[in-house]
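Need a sequence for this fold. Nothing fancy.
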């Protein structure tokens, strides 16, 4: 009976640990009050890290531009030029319209999302523990694991798609594309339904793909961290440096390192996919049928 109690206590603690790490610092938790209207329940941690990482991206690239030289460039200028050339090549290959916005937008999306994704490689307990010392009990440090952030970015891309569709094709051309394609005037209701589903699927899939991949990655890091937590819980009353605890800690380090190395590919790939789909969607908006 005593052993069963210890196991149940460990399971409860592990569950609480996972739920705690997957909970945002929203308005209710920040103000310690229940809101009558949950629509205004902002996720402050997601907003904070998104803004900070955006400032880091903009500031570092601005610094590189100000210090750029035609002489022998420094390491940072070389790195920035490499990224800019890479994004510019993707835009030239995929975008068939004419716009001064697309390349800067693609660069911003790629770098900003990569930085937000990169926060997933920070040890899961590091920043939340620092936050607890400041009285912040909940903190998610990976903004792209919050569907509000990914949907906000995808909806912004969707608004640009609608804007350029109307700007390039005109209101009449956009209306014809909306109501007359692909089956002509005798199938207007069906055409409209297909077009609405097609267009709405773009921002939804764009947001959920990024959110799902990063949320799963964060969850795996948390589950790996539970190894050491379970060892600590089940070793209560015993020497914390027992052989079992040390073994589980070593397993955690090995698994965490292996997943982090693999996850570098995922965070880069997801930033690239979001950028490329944005370019393709905006290119489609510039095409006249």
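Here you go.
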């Amino acid at each position: 009976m005593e052993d069963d109690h210890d196991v149940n206590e460990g399971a409860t603690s592990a569950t609480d640990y996972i739920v705690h790490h997957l909970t945002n610092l929203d308005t209710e938790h920040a103000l310690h009050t229940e809101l009558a209207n949950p629509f205004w329940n902002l996720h402050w941690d997601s907003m904070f890290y998104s803004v900070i990482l955006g400032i880091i991206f903009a500031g570092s690239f601005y610094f590189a531009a100000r210090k750029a030289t035609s002489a022998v460039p420094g390491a940072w200028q070389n790195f920035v030029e490499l990224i800019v050339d890479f994004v510019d090549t993707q835009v030239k290959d995929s975008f068939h319209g004419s716009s001064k916005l697309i390349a800067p937008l693609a660069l911003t999306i790629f770098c900003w999302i990569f930085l937000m994704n990169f926060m997933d490689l920070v040890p899961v307990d590091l920043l939340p523990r620092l936050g607890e010392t400041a009285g912040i009990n909940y903190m998610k440090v990976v903004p792209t694991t919050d569907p509000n952030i990914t949907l906000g970015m995808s909806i912004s891309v969707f608004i640009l798609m609608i804007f350029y569709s109307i700007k390039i094709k005109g209101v009449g051309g956009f209306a014809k594309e909306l109501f007359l394609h692909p089956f002509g005037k005798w199938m207007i209701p069906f055409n409209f339904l297909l077009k609405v589903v097609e267009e709405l699927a773009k921002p939804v899939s764009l947001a959920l793909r990024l959110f799902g991949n990063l949320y799963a990655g964060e969850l795996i890091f948390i589950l790996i961290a539970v190894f050491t937590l379970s060892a600590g819980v089940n070793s209560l009353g015993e020497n914390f440096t027992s052989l079992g605890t040390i073994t589980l800690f070593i397993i955690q380090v090995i698994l965490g390192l292996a997943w982090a190395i693999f996850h570098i590919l995922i965070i880069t790939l997801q930033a690239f996919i979001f950028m490329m789909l944005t370019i393709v969607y905006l290119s489609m908006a510039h095409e006249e049928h």
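For context: The chain has one domain: 2-286.
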